[in-house]
Every structure is written in C-alpha cells, then in structure tokens.
Amino acid sequence: MPRPRRSGPRAPWYGKGMLLGLKVTAVEFLRTVFPHRGGLKILKPNPTAGAVTVQYPREKESPTPRARGVIALHEGNCTACMLCARSCPDWCIYIEGHKEQAPPRRPGGKPRQVNALDRFDIDYALCMYCGICVEVCPFEALFWTPEYEYSEPRIADLLHDKSRLGEWMETVPPFEAYEPGSEMKVPKVPPT
Amino acid sequence: MTSAVLAFEMAYWQQSVLRSVGVLAAVLLPAGTIVYLFLFKMMSFMQSRLGPNEAGPYGSLQLLAEVGKWIQKEDIFPAKADRKLFAMAPYIVVASVLLVYVAVPFGPDAWFARLDTGIFYVLAVSSISAIGVLIAGWASANKYSLIGGLRAAGQLIAYELPMVLAVVGVVVQAGSLDLFEIVRMQAEGEIFGLSWFGNPFILTQMVGFVIFMIATQAELTQPPFDMPVAESELVTGYMTEYSGIRFLLFFIAEFASAGAFGIIAATLFLGGYWLPGLDMHADYMNVVGPLVLLGKMLFVTFIIFWVRFTYPRFREDQLQKFAWTLLIPLALVNILATMVLKVAF
After folding, report:
1. In terms of CB atoms within 10 Å, which of A92, A111, B57, B141 comes out highest?
2. Least confident window among A15-24, A94-103, B9-18
3. Tell me, what's the pLDDT at A127?
C-alpha cells in the first residue's frame, strides 16, 4: 500500500540530524579553541578564554549572597538556649554554658541571671548545610555566609569553635530584600 | 625496524625481547596520545571546558598521574568472585589488542611479524577480547557485570560480522589477505586512469569504509554503542568490580584497541604507511612509514571520538537490529558489487 504523501514542509532527509549533531560538537570545539572572531587572532588557539568554565584556583567565582557556605555565630546574641543543637538533624552543634550574675539593667534593680556561652562548636565534617539551626534561632545569633574556602587536611580541624565561627561574621553579606510575595518571613538582619 | 635489528646478529631471545618491547611501545604510545588528545582535550573543548591543564604542560602528564593513582589502588576481589578467572580477564582483553599490532605493516621492512593472511589474523585475534569481556562479566559474581558482559558479547558478535564483511570487499579488490599486499595495491593502483595518488580503497570502498567504521565503533563499545557499560543502568557493566591495576588494564585495552582499529582502518582504506609522493619500497619509509601511519591512525580515531562525543547511546534492541538488518545486508551487497566490478574491469 503506498503511503499517503506528506503535505507541508518536506521531511528531513535521512541522516540529516546525525550530521547536524556532528556539526554542533565541531562548532563548539572551534568556538572553545579559537574564541576570537575575525582578525588575525582567529588562528591563535586560546581555550582558556573560550571555555565557559571558571578556572577555580586561579579565578574565584563569587557565590550568590544567600549561598549556604558556612554558618557564622554572633556570640553576643546567643543565650545558649540549645534550640539549634536540638534541631540539628545530625547533631553537629555542641553547646556548653553556665549561669552568671549580671549587673542590673537600671540602678537599684535586682542583679540578673544570664546564660554565658562556654563552648559553641559546629562540626562541619558532619554538617549537611540544611540551615535549620539558622531558621530556628530566636535571637538572631546564627547567619549564613557565602564563604566556602575552609577545607582542612585533618578532619578534626573542621570543628569550628566559637571564635572561629565568630570570625565568619565579618563575611555575612548585608540583607537583601526578599522576593515579592515572601513578606511573611521575618528578615534576618545582621547586627551592625 | 625489525630488519634493521636483524642486520645485527641476534639470538632468538634477544629478538623476542626487542619485539615485545616494540609491541608494547607501539601499543602504549598511540593509546596515550589518543587518550590525551581526544579523551582529555578534544572532549573538553567540545563541552566548552578546559580539561586537565595542571599536570605538565597543557596537562599532558595527566595520564601518567592517573596511571600512578590506579597502580596505588587496592586490587579488590569480590567475595564470591571466581578469583582465577577474575584476575585473568583483563590480561586476555589486553593480549588481544597487543596481538593485533603484531601483524600491522609499519613500513616496507618495519613489522613485528609478516603474515600471508594478515587481515584474517587481525580480525581473528581482535575478537578474542569478547571472551575476556565475557569472563570478566561472569567471574565478577555481580548481576551488573554479568548483564554487561552478555551485552558486550552479543554486541561484539553482532558487529564482528559486518566488520569482516566490509573487509572482504577490500580483500576482493586487493586480491590478497596480506596487509602488505593490500597497502601495495593501494599505492600502485590507479583510479580512472589517474595514478599519482594511487588508489586508496576509501574511494572505491566508501560503503565498506563506513560500515567498517560503524562496526569499529561498536567493537570498541564506544558511544553510541556503549550499551555494555551503560553507566546509568549497569554501573560500568563488566568493569564494575574491577579496581586498581586491573581496571587500568581494561582502560588501556579500550584505547589501545581504538588505536589498533584506527591503524587497521588506515591500512585497509587510507593507504597504510604510504603517502602520495613517497617511494613505498625505499629504506627511509621504515622511519617515515610509522609516522605516516600514526598520522592516519590519529585521523581515523579522531572520527571515532568525534562520533563518540556527539551521539547518545542506542537502546539494546536498536543496536542489534541496526547490525543484523542494515549493516550486514549492506555489507553483503557491497561484496557482491565489488566482485561484479572486479570481474567486469
């Protein structure tokens, strides 16, 4: 039975797509090796300029402001309430504290009792960067920062203590307004 | 090479050692070149990235670094593996590649062994690797390995046939199974009364060349014919349980056999070690010939790897159907046409 002849645009000839595929890879190859168009430069291979990848150790890619790089601790805000440690899915936050007498807020008042922080460690060998601790902190003590260069030769060195976590505070980017429609969230503003 | 060596009086064992070293060099150098040029660099550029660029100038020592890494790794045997077979399989695969190089003519006197039925020998030993692959898949005691090994065996058998049939066209036209004779016929032949560029069989055996290249792609289990090592479903097929030096052997075999088939294709279809303007019987061809052959091999492997990096993989049934219903009938028609034309002219 003869097939009904197809009307409209003609069907591509057999193997056209195969050749097109070869052309795509070849063109991409040439575009990478010879990135400069026109002029004499076209014969000078320069794949470093042609490749779209960022050559990491030589040039750093700047992460987005809300990238989850490392968690910074603002020690003055922490009350050792343990909410972050208890909500951590893999228990990588270690907190120890003790109660202290603090001077009264106004003259003549009663001396206050505050929680002083002895130890606040985050074990980044365990941390899975879920951000629950940052979400759950009621006192604005934990912040995400986009820094990511803190790998260590020894796994034990990935345990950041509170002074190291405090140093990360300098890298916390200023708060950027949320997208429209997400106003219900309470913005976390880094303390000045 | 060998004849120059033979000019010195040498004991048999000395010759044998020299030939072994020569074959190893002839296998490893092209394989390393292919891996660096095509697998590392060309693939990276086709994907708009740089590829290895730290080890050595332009990353050219990357392969040595990788080899060092693989040698350090633990040689793991699965608990239920058939240890002897498991240990042996990669050596069988590599041996089949090494044996292919033995019969290749690199120059008028540069050869490791001169065989009257060279191409028959080459096709025969190159299919030994199917046995090695099957052994590897079976001995691993792993279902992925077994399925990969069976797929590889099925594929190698399916594509061995069109490859042999494509070669038969060349053999009919050259009138000889001897690879030297095939090269000579291309160098001294003429086409349409023109003789200055000889008659490389790619001109008259274009169909055979295309079939041979497709079958080569499948024999090498390169994409789009890499169903046996389909990593999304079979991990890496028959190589799943291998690590360290044995995985390295599989790796070497894969790319050395790409070089081997490149050399065979260059010898059968592109004029072998001969180029227009060169005297194919002169002594200098023993030095120039291997270089010419290497260049032609790089051209052929370039096509193989270009195709590899372009196409997605076939489904298993498509792959078998393609061989049995398209390539084999086409190759048979090609043989028939060649024979008719051979008798007619």
Report:
1. A92
2. B9-18
3. 92
In this structure, what are the phi and psi dihedrals at residue B107, rounded to the nearest 5 degrees?
-170, 175
**A70-171: which CATH architecture?**
2-Layer Sandwich (3.30)
Q: Would the CB atoms of B48 and A32 count as touching at under 8 Å?
A: yes
Residue of B nearest to A28 (CA): B46
A155 band by pLDDT with thresholds 50, 70 and 90: very high
Measured between beta carbons, the chain B residues lying within 8 angstroms of A50 are: 45, 48
Collapsing DSSP to helix, strand or coil, A94 comes out as strand
Task: Name chain A contacts of B50, Cβ cutoff 8 Å.
Answer: 47-48, 51, 53, 55
∠ at Cα A20 (A16, A25), nearest 5°?
155
Looking at residue B193, its pLDDT comes to: 65
What span, in angstroms and rounded, lies between the C-alpha atoms of B56 and B64?
10
* Between residues A31 and A4, the one the model is more confident about: A31
φ/ψ of residue A115, rounded to 5 = -90, 120
Is residue B175 left, alpha or beta, with left meaning phi > 0 and alpha meaning psi from -120 to 50?
left
Q: Domain residues of chain A, as ranges?
A: 16-50, 70-171
- Which residues have C-beta within 8 Å of that of residue A36, sequence separation ≥ 6? A42, A44, A46, A49
ipTM: 0.74
B276 pLDDT tier (thresholds 50, 70, 90): confident
Partner residue opposite B310 with nearest CB, options A22, A32, A48: A22
Does this model's pTM top 0.90? My answer is no
Contact of A162 with A119, CB cutoff 8 Å: yes
